[in-house]
Amino acid sequence: MLRFNDILERLTSYNPHADTDFLRKAYVFSAKVHLGQVRLSGEPYLNHPLEVAGIITQLKLDVASVATGLLHDTVEDTLTTLKEIQGNFGEETAQLVDGLTKISLISLRSSEEHQAENFRKMILAMVKDIRVILIKLADRLHNMRTLKYHTPEKQVEIAQETLDIYAPLAHRLGIDWIKSELEDLAFQYLHPEIYEEIKRKIAKKEKERARYIDEVKRTLMKKLYENHIESEVAARLKQIYSIYLKMKEQNIDFDQVYDITAFRVIVNSIKECYDVLGITHSLWKPIPGKFKDYIGLPKENMYQSLHTTVIGPYGERIEIQIRTNEMHRIAEEGIAAHWKYKEGKVVEEAEDKRFTWLRQLLEWQRDLKDDREFIESVKVDLFPNEVYIFTPKGAVKQFPIGSTPIDFAYSIHSDIGNHCVGAKVNGKIVPLRYELRSGDTIEILTSPNQKPSKDWLKFVKTSRAKTKIRQWFTAEEREKSIALGKEILEKEFRKYDLQQAKLIKSGELSKVANEFSFQGVEDLIAAIGYGKLTANQIIGKLLPQEKLEQQKEELKEGRFQHLIQKITRTPKDALLIKGIDNVMVRYAGCCNPVPGDKVVGFITRGRGVTIHTADCQNAMDDDPHRKVEVEWDSTKEYNYPVRIRIHSEDKKGLLAEISNSISSTKANIKNARVDTTEDKKAVSTFEVEIRDLSHLNKVIKALEKIKGVRLVERMRVEAQVES
Ligand code: MN
To answer: What is the radius of gyration, based on Cα positions, of the chain?
Structure first.
């Protein structure tokens, strides 16, 4: 059993100036709060934090980490609060303890195999401080060492999780000995028979192997000595788990696995590494393709060594690793060997190179005079651009940072996205704009009446959600355009005694569609709704020319004539119509809206969308079901015709003065009409092109300044005939 003094001794061996009082305080605190608790093994609970702290000293971590090892279960398993930890041990230790508590609270079990990688990433995304993971690994290692006290079901569950999540994490962090031990322990519980069998077979050949190892070692050492290379040659039995993997992958028996022993040569310099390689290859024939130079090209977890496999004295394969002392230390301690935290330094990482930060750490390490001087915290946001969340079923999904419930909803199904009204995160209702955080469990609320909003495009983060929302609007727009197109056609057809339904049935419209190169009647009708085609263009294809002319004449006669010619214009692009873009737009003659006016739109029979000012009486009387929301698009400049009525004296030269005044405001006069009365008064009606409301007001102000002008008004027709 490990004692506190053993831990102190180990800590001070690599960190002579460590604050031992602080550590002692942590020990006393832990002993006090865990007092009376026992582990499943029957031993006092305190043994666990002591063992964990002991493993942390093997990783040569700092005092805060070792203290956290002692305190790591206090918040989760005793009445201790995080505040107490903070009060007694400061912010740093409190945050480490908090990180460990948080990890232990998320349930990492899932039946889906591919989830393991996501779980690993989630853990990495949740912790801001890499020490939390290292302490967690120490915790897991001791729990695995004492797994035998659990029920068989629990053993399998914990072993599987260890194999799926924690062993790979240890590997990524470059701590090979923890990775190997975790794997062998997990394997032992997951496949006890195979484990025992391999172990037995290894034991059976124990003597034989010892002799063999001795022979290889002596041959090699002799040769190295002759070449004046100071070295250390060690043999180690390969992990049982990796022997198993080899048997499984190559589909072979244990007896066919030759290289269950691996040799390692440790020297003082990189040059010597390559020398040793040459000597080895001169002794035994290398197997082509088996040489790996991890010195020239280190692994992502910073591992460096030369690997080679040669044909040994009995024709068997021998795997040999060659490395320097320093490389060996890194291989044993992994990332812990290499860190130094720099305040405020943000590690940038490429999408696919998640672990480039390890290389960055290596860079920092070079700046240090002595990385053993002290080991400080490493605070790296491992996945700064991603969040990992749980589905209600416990699966993990990855999203870009800033993603919202809508992103999640569309990731399930576009129908769920389209009808998403809200979401529950960790059981609480959140707004649609809520930004997801790693570890959240999210559930989507839908309603059949819900529709996507263009606003959503402003805050969704995934391209899938964006695409699906846009697709919905395109479909919606088309639907509306078809409805609109039908109405326009219906109205125009009526004038020529044509019947839409009949024309569709008979296939005549289909022919017209072909002539205009549309896929079908629906596309043709939609094109009319969009304003890409006019009803007359279609009628022109349906009726013979003479019939068309005749009908036109008749229509002309009966047409209602306005005082002032109806303004025909379609600067439709200047308007943004919510939900339907690209439709035929008309500005109501009654209120003549100009940019700046508050406007509403109405889908009108046969005339596309008519725009009124919001306060126009005609608009208020109109059918609210036909109302569509419209907005001016301020990014575009157009000229809008507007009618102005000027009441003035009837005097010579006034008309010229009025025209000059209008021109001076850079407005364009399109039409003018002056009516004089017998009492020497004049009423002039001007059709003027202006840019927007403020431009119009400028024109009116200028006109009002003219001597003789009594009143200037923007013209609105009281009653407008709208069919
Ligand atoms: Mn624990």
So the answer is: 41
